[in-house]
Amino acid sequence: MIYLKSRKDKFKIFLFIVPALVLYVLFQIVPMIGAFYFSVADWNGIAGTAIKMVGLKNYIAVFKDPGFLISLQNMGKMVFFSVLFHTPIALLLAVAINTKCRGYRFYKAVYFVPTVFPLTAVGLLWYFIFMPNGSFNTLLTNMGLSQFVTPWLINTSTAMNTIIFVNIWAGVGYYMVILIAGLTTIPDDIYEAAQIDGITTVKKFFLITVPMLKPIISMCIVMDIIGTVKVFDLIFVMTEGGPNGLTNLPTTLMYYEAFRYDHYGIGSAIGIIIFLIALVLTVGSEYLTSRTEN
Amino acid sequence: MNHTNYKGRKALGKVGLFTFLTAMALMFICPMVFTVFSSFKDNTEIFGDPFSLPKTFRFSNYVEAWNGANMSTYFINSLVISIATVVILAVVSSMAAYALSRFNLKCGKALTIFFLAGMMIPIHTILVPVAYIIGKFNLKNNLVALVLIYVAFSLSFSIYVLARFMKGINRSLEEAAIIDGAGYFQIYTRIMLPLTVPAISTVSIFNFLGAWNNILFPLLFINDDKLKPIALGLLNFNGERGSAYGPLMAAIVITVFIPMVIYLLFQEKVESGLAAGAVKE
């Protein structure tokens, strides 16, 4: 720290913050305050038309909308399966790669590379695989499993699960890399001591690796939950929330309400609900992890 | 006896390890390879023979995507938008981080928390107000405004990472410079910026990918086809020519090309930066 004494110096230093502050307030804070405002207002999206204040009407409408309840349910389902698969698969991959076996760099790159792709491209890539005459159905037919052939993204009982699968596919590498970084912090001598005691690989995994990585594993799970709440692109590209809104998440529903049906108030209310969900999850998980640490 | 048993188990473990790694790798490689193969095929071959190598490599699909579907325009738009975002963010956030991390400003702590709070704002929450601002100030198809929105949205994360890095820089150089009569701006450009290059490059890679991959803000801002960034252009192409699958696959490959090159070039940087990037999600 450099201690500034004169007012002039303090002012000079403050000037360094001004550009960031202006942009941040203009394009983040003002819209954030605006979001609350629009969520209790009625506006048709046309610039210049009057904005009417309607109180909590939008929120009531949102919670009465079966489409929104479905989107919440989908979100819960997606969070559940993401947590169930992302971190555990990523952990197995991380441990396997951390053996530094032959070709481990190649394997790591293969698992990780989808996470840097635009999700629009990832979504389209899988859309062409899962479309009714897509390659996955061809593969099933070729393998003699034609009884399983189905329009994966249109069939109401498979559409959401297919999206959940793609979301897991696209994200595993991300958590893997974080866990690999965590693995390198575990000192080798713990494993060496275990080796001398003749402990099996499986036991080493459950008795040393998992407990030592616990803070990072829980960080991954928290990030996964919050990240899944914000999934948008995949659904926007693969199903547009269809069939019949059955694959909507609050994020996509918010977008369609506001920008397809011009229900800006409803869209804003859902936007605020998304914010509150993310906030509660973040604060809640902070609280839980800090409590377990004590 | 025991020894051979151990060796045998070890060999078995190795086989298991490689089986697992390879099986998982196939899950990742197959869809990507399928897309690349298809990008060289015509429709008959894509549907008749989806898993084989293309019989002839139709580079015409790429020409069709690049020229016919305007992917070249989208590609250049995205490059311009992403680079502008990265440069402005690097300048603006490093300046703020310098002031917040190196001096005892009275409101420094409060400002830091104020900036950090931005990481809690989901993009969807501010979409309607942003759309309102666009309409009110006539910012439709204004690329400068789009870039500034990207900058604002990534400021919290960038300032957070850069300030944390700058805090760790030794102050002796800075103090010597003050004694030599250097101004604060000089210290920032001559001392702090060069020392912060590692953190700035990490942040910049993330910001570049963020701008390259984003579709939500362009969906609101851009309806002029000539100004669309690549992720949005790809969707456009999909909507317009849904049946020309070869060129569409080529367009997907073109879209992921730059992020992939960035990753392969800066592999370590991208991966090690994730721990810092993790905070944003």
TrEMBL record, chain A:
<feature type="transmembrane region" description="Helical">
    <location>
        <begin position="12"/>
        <end position="38"/>
    </location>
</feature>
<dbReference type="Pfam" id="PF00528">
    <property type="entry name" value="BPD_transp_1"/>
</dbReference>
<keyword id="KW-1133">Transmembrane helix</keyword>
<feature type="domain" description="ABC transmembrane type-1">
    <location>
        <begin position="72"/>
        <end position="285"/>
    </location>
</feature>
<feature type="transmembrane region" description="Helical">
    <location>
        <begin position="264"/>
        <end position="284"/>
    </location>
</feature>
<feature type="transmembrane region" description="Helical">
    <location>
        <begin position="78"/>
        <end position="97"/>
    </location>
</feature>
<dbReference type="InterPro" id="IPR000515">
    <property type="entry name" value="MetI-like"/>
</dbReference>
<dbReference type="InterPro" id="IPR051393">
    <property type="entry name" value="ABC_transporter_permease"/>
</dbReference>
<keyword id="KW-0813">Transport</keyword>
<comment type="similarity">
    <text>Belongs to the binding-protein-dependent transport system permease family.</text>
</comment>
<dbReference type="InterPro" id="IPR035906">
    <property type="entry name" value="MetI-like_sf"/>
</dbReference>
<feature type="transmembrane region" description="Helical">
    <location>
        <begin position="205"/>
        <end position="226"/>
    </location>
</feature>
<keyword id="KW-1003">Cell membrane</keyword>
<feature type="transmembrane region" description="Helical">
    <location>
        <begin position="162"/>
        <end position="184"/>
    </location>
</feature>
<keyword id="KW-0472">Membrane</keyword>
<keyword id="KW-0812">Transmembrane</keyword>
<protein>
    <submittedName>
        <fullName>Sugar ABC transporter permease</fullName>
    </submittedName>
</protein>
<feature type="transmembrane region" description="Helical">
    <location>
        <begin position="109"/>
        <end position="129"/>
    </location>
</feature>
TrEMBL record, chain B:
<dbReference type="InterPro" id="IPR035906">
    <property type="entry name" value="MetI-like_sf"/>
</dbReference>
<dbReference type="InterPro" id="IPR000515">
    <property type="entry name" value="MetI-like"/>
</dbReference>
<keyword id="KW-1003">Cell membrane</keyword>
<feature type="transmembrane region" description="Helical">
    <location>
        <begin position="12"/>
        <end position="34"/>
    </location>
</feature>
<feature type="transmembrane region" description="Helical">
    <location>
        <begin position="74"/>
        <end position="100"/>
    </location>
</feature>
<keyword id="KW-0472">Membrane</keyword>
<keyword id="KW-1133">Transmembrane helix</keyword>
<feature type="domain" description="ABC transmembrane type-1">
    <location>
        <begin position="75"/>
        <end position="266"/>
    </location>
</feature>
<feature type="transmembrane region" description="Helical">
    <location>
        <begin position="191"/>
        <end position="212"/>
    </location>
</feature>
<comment type="similarity">
    <text>Belongs to the binding-protein-dependent transport system permease family.</text>
</comment>
<feature type="transmembrane region" description="Helical">
    <location>
        <begin position="112"/>
        <end position="135"/>
    </location>
</feature>
<dbReference type="Pfam" id="PF00528">
    <property type="entry name" value="BPD_transp_1"/>
</dbReference>
<feature type="transmembrane region" description="Helical">
    <location>
        <begin position="244"/>
        <end position="266"/>
    </location>
</feature>
<keyword id="KW-0812">Transmembrane</keyword>
<feature type="transmembrane region" description="Helical">
    <location>
        <begin position="141"/>
        <end position="163"/>
    </location>
</feature>
<keyword id="KW-0813">Transport</keyword>
<protein>
    <submittedName>
        <fullName>Carbohydrate ABC transporter permease</fullName>
    </submittedName>
</protein>
